[in-house]
Amino acid sequence: MKTKSIASLLLTTALTFAVTGVASAQDKTVKIGALSDQSGLYADLGGPGSTLAAQMAVEDSGLAAKGWKIDIISGDHQNKPDIGTAIARQWFDVDKVDIIVDVPNSGVALAVNNVIKEKNGVYINSGAATSDLTNAQCSPNTVHWTYDTYMLAHTTGQALVKAGGDSWFFLTADYAFGAALERDTSAVVTANGGKVIGGVKHPLNTPDFSSFLLQAQASKAKVIGLANAGGDTTNTIKQAAEFGIGKGGQKLAALLLFLTDVKAIGLETAQGLNFTETFYWDMNDQTRAFSKRFGEKMKNGAMPTMVQAGVYAGVRHYLKALEALGGNPHDGVKVVDKMKSMPTEDDLFGKGEIQPNGRTIHSAYLFEVKKPSESKGPWDFYKLVGTVPGDQAFTPLSESKCALLKK
Amino acid sequence: MRATFKGTPKGSGTGSMQALYAQLLVGLINGSFYALLSLGLAVIFGMLNIINFAHGALYMMGAFVAYFLLNLGGINYWWALLFAPIIVGIFGMILERTMLQWLTGLDHLYGLLLTFGIALIVQGVFQNYFGSSGLPYAIPDQLKGGMNLGFMFLPIYRGWVVVFSLVVCLATWFLIEKTQLGAYLRAATENPTLVRAFGINVPRMITLTYGLGVGLAALAGVLSAPINQVRPLMGADLIIVVFAVVVIGGMGSIMGSIITGFALGVIEGLTKYFYPEASNTVVFVLMVLVLLVKPTGLTGRAA
Fold first, then answer.
1. Chain A residues touching residue B138 (CB < 8 angstroms)
2. Largest CB tally within 10 Å, which of A164, A325, A352, B117?
3. How confident is the model at residue A21, as a pLDDT?
């Protein structure tokens, strides 16, 4: 009797091991955390729209029908790195999140980057601009989608210098993002024979720019480079018009401008601005179809920004990699390596690839804001003026200082 | 136009003196908003003893009402200057009747918490419907363009803001300090029972005073709509600075809040010129200094 019970105990134990072993190989549960600015100056370009984009990516992947269980939670980092990292830590330690997406605000993005590396999670950043994410501070757990400061500098910046804007004055948001954008753009300006003659750093979220604009006006620079984003950029552009800066012959370079910013400024003031994005809702049938579905689920029918589109494309690619792996290994480096080994392709950004440093390569587009008379609908804002192929828009691997490349 | 500036504006010489004048004027423009808002706060605190944290949200509502009047009703900026303060003022009076009046005689903390809660709710509702990046509101045609003052290009609209808010501030000061009605008001704050004995309806007067303070906030909102974006959080960003202004000027002092409002705008403008990184904090540094030296504020009376 005693031997029998020991035997049955052993059998049970063996069975348990066998069952759990099978379960971990085919674990089909995934938890996605959408971390963004949910209520501040970047909330409209990322925020709730990014969470929606992630949800749509999960639905469109069709994995639920194949037995996968995918949950999405969202968090508000309030543009504060300490809050961002606290949420990220809690998500990994308590909520067992596998992947964090979006994260606009370069300061928060870089801080969260370290947490995700430490916890071996997956990081698909779409919202932040700093090129450091795939350069000096690159991580084997990180993929940077959509755009970065190097790309903005080498598209909008370069085009303006070549068009004769050879002296620059910068209005720079005083944190990681502004510093990176000013640095990368200054490099392009100097490399193309231009000169940076001055600049002023303003605090994030400044309501009144008149004082800074007067300094820019007084500098007599041909181009006033706006190394800021979101509400700061819209306020600068509006108030620059008030102070007659465009009429005085100086040109405003909105290095980073989003669809929602143009909406907020209004075409009357924004018309004629040149800038770069990697996604616009009205590019082709696929982008229009996606944007229509997106708009129906958004309050006030907003079209997706490139950041939100990047969240969608990134999550789609992530889920494709998981499907190819046959289950979720809950191992960030392994999943990201798989993502890098597969070419990217989706309806929003077309064909592309993820470089070994984590940078996603896809085309970038130079746009011009339409005149009010040219606009046919509430979100009809852009004219396409040029396309820059991905390999020319983003940092060449030979210039990247990423440690992952030295293996 | 003369060549006024050589090289960086941070150099010395005549060029930078003129840049300095420009910064002083710009500071005065921002000071106009501080003055209008802190004046409303001072009126409300002086008469009702309520620290009105909803002031920023009511300022924001003023801008939104102007936006709706223009886009839904086709009512232009000039009428909005009249109607928006009345509409938001009525909203304020309803708040006072239904909620604030029950806090009379309680600790300041209750009023502060209640109005802070109201502000969060109002901002949350607007943000839910209009997002965070805001809506455009154009400068009225009559005030478009600008003039060259030699040392700077002054947008006509900004000049209008300074003149108009100065007039409104002085009129309010006159109303409260120099007229019969103002005398009743001040008396009612000192001793409501006695004033009531003279046959004056004190609760109604208090309600109207709150409406006046709120109307001033809404007026500032309409004035700022063409300069800033009409955004749900436009007041939240500003209200903290305005409270610092009120604390520096002395709670409840009408003239004190007007003068401090303009003065701090100028000081902030100078900071933006000499050390822009600190421009968001300079007001608070001053507040700490003033509280250390004179806790009742520069013109405040002892509580």
1. 266, 268
2. A352
3. 44
